[in-house]
Write a structure and sequence with these properties.
Layout lengths: L1 H21 L6 H11 L17 H20 L5 H14 L1 H16 L7 H12 L1 H12 L8 H11 L11 H21 L4 H23 L14 H22 L3 H13 L3 H14 L14 H21 L1 H8 L15 H13 L6 E2 L7 H4 L15 H14 L11 H12 L9 H11 L3 E4 L12 E3 L2 E5 L7
Parallel strand pairs: 1-2
Antiparallel strand pairs: 2-4, 3-4
Helix pairs in contact: 1-2, 1-3, 1-11, 2-11, 2-14, 3-4, 3-5, 4-5, 4-6, 5-6, 5-10, 8-19, 9-11, 9-13, 11-12, 12-13
């Protein structure tokens, strides 16, 4: 919970600074921009509170990335020191490699495009990379040393395409995702053009998407430099959304000043809520820019007026309540404060699972390895025990990626334990997973084989598991705990 709150503070203050850098003449815009972020389902205050059952570091990477863009925008505009952006970029790489490195690349290119080029972009990149050495060295070792690359490029791409293609490969997107992506890009371009903000950095960020999409397409489809696929360019969409939120804040400021009173507040509220829905948001943005925001030069640089404080506070309170009401993940996490959350114990609101968790905590050792359904990545936090594998958390070294994929394929019934060490069977199972084959129920005897293979002491089944007539060590409803039978050698 503390990590979540710190992340949100970093994100909100970063959006404030970024908005102030992009729209310096619209002083009230940062207030509305932060409220808009609350409604964005990918980065908002209620989204991904405890992703997969515990704190997700990627969101701290996104928050630091917003700060880096804010400091970089001021530096590119000639109003800030390069070293601040360099330190922030280095910290961003340490927090999340695949978010921090692209942000540094965007800043570097943006610095080269300044009207008066100098050596500052090189200094910025150098300092950031030095700070990030602890994160870069393992990555370089994992990606490029021959001993760490037993997988072929085709299998690397197939595994990543099966697990989360939306992070890597836009050609796997559905029409809805393409539409949302286009809506966000278009809205960002419209807002930046209309308000004449510091447009260099957002323009370079848009260029990054175009170049990396083409590079991914070429490298993955032609098996050229498959390691490129590891770098998840489309995780940066959250940073672009932060920029669009800044534009939305500027529009809200114009609405309230153009239509003071309840009408302006109502229209601004509708507009901020629409930020949650890209298509609706784009349409409303076009209408507002065509009717209300006719003259960008008229944007006021006055601070937030006294009579505006109450409406903004009311809108912010409504945003927080909206997040609490619509995010079941957030509600469950907040409710879990009643269950000794500060002592590290998080309870599920499934009564059967709660009973299983309490039995496991009382009757097993913290060092015991558990075999659980692949979808139960939250087991590490709720039951507080290590597990063999889960679908959520993917390693990014080829050798570890192969081992993770093999474990998941076994747990989901796509790979027979008797063929687990067969390269041909493994490859066929990966390709079948990528092509959309469904997970199959795994019986208890097969789970015991998998548990023995990886040294798991206990097996846990849930409502999604196939039923068994064997007696468990503990059962509650559809949840059950079985002691794994170790293999006896003659």
């Amino acid at each position: 919970l503390a990590a979540h709150l710190v992340t949100r503070v970093v994100l909100m203050t970063g959006v404030w600074r970024l908005c102030d850098s992009l729209f310096p003449r619209v002083r009230s815009a940062p207030f509305f921009a932060m409220i808009a972020v609350i409604f964005e389902p990918r980065v908002w205050i209620g989204g991904h509170f405890l992703q997969g059952g515990h704190y997700e570091g990627a969101f701290l990477g996104m928050a630091v990335g917003v700060w880096t863009l804010a400091l970089g925008a001021r530096w590119i505009a000639g109003e800030g020191a390069w070293w601040r952006a360099a330190v922030s970029a280095g910290i961003g790489i340490l927090v999340h490699l695949f978010i921090g490195l692209p942000v540094l690349a965007v800043l570097f290119v943006g610095g080269l495009l300044r009207p008066r080029p100098d050596r500052e972009p090189l200094h910025l990149a150098g300092i950031a990379l030095v700070i990030a050495i602890p994160a870069l060295l393992p990555a370089v070792t994992g990606f490029f040393l021959a001993s760490e690359t037993p997988l072929s490029g085709r299998l690397v791409i197939a595994i990543l395409e099966a697990r989360h293609p939306h992070h890597h490969m836009p050609w796997t997107w559905e029409m809805r995702e393409w539409g949302e992506f286009a809506a966000v890009l278009g809205t960002g371009a419209i807002l930046l053009r209309q308000f004449r903000g510091q447009g260099t950095l957002p323009a370079v960020l848009l260029l990054w998407y175009c170049v990396t999409a083409a590079l991914f397409w070429f490298c993955a489809r032609n098996l050229i430099l498959p390691v490129v696929v590891y770098f998840q360019a489309f995780r940066l969409l959250g940073l672009l959304l932060a920029i669009v939120a800044c534009g939305a804040g500027a529009v809200c400021c114009q609405i309230v000043r153009t239509l003071p009173g309840p009408r302006g507040l109502l229209l601004a509220g509708i507009y901020v809520v629409s930020f949650r829905y890209p298509f609706t948001f784009t349409i409303i943005t076009l209408l507002l820019l065509a009717t209300i925001v006719k003259r960008p030069a008229a944007a006021s640089n006055a601070p937030l007026l006294r009579h505006e404080i109450a409406p903004v506070a009311a809108l912010g309170a409504f945003a927080v309540l909206f997040a609490l009401q619509t995010s079941s993940v957030l509600r469950e996490s907040v409710n879990s404060l009643r269950h000794e959350y500060w002592l590290g114990e998080v309870q599920s609101h499934n009564e059967n699972r709660t009973a299983v968790a309490e039995w496991i905590r009382q009757n097993t050792s913290r060092e015991d390895l558990f075999l659980v359904p692949a979808s139960r990545g939250d087991f590490r936090v709720i039951e507080q025990r290590p597990i063999v594998a889960d679908l959520k958390y993917v390693p990014y070294r080829n050798a570890e990626l192969a081992d993770w994929a093999r474990r998941v394929l076994l747990l989901t019934g796509r790979l027979d334990p008797r063929e687990a060490d067969s390269p041909t069977a493994f490859q066929n199972a990966v390709l079948s997973w990528r092509d959309g084959s469904s997970a199959r129920p795994v019986n208890l005897s097969t789970l015991e084989e998998i548990a023995n293979r990886y040294g798991a002491r206990w097996i846990v089944t849930d409502e999604t598991s196939s039923s068994t007539s064997l007696s468990p060590a503990f059962r509650s409803g559809g949840w059950a705990v079985f002691a794994s039978k170790p293999v006896t050698t003659p």
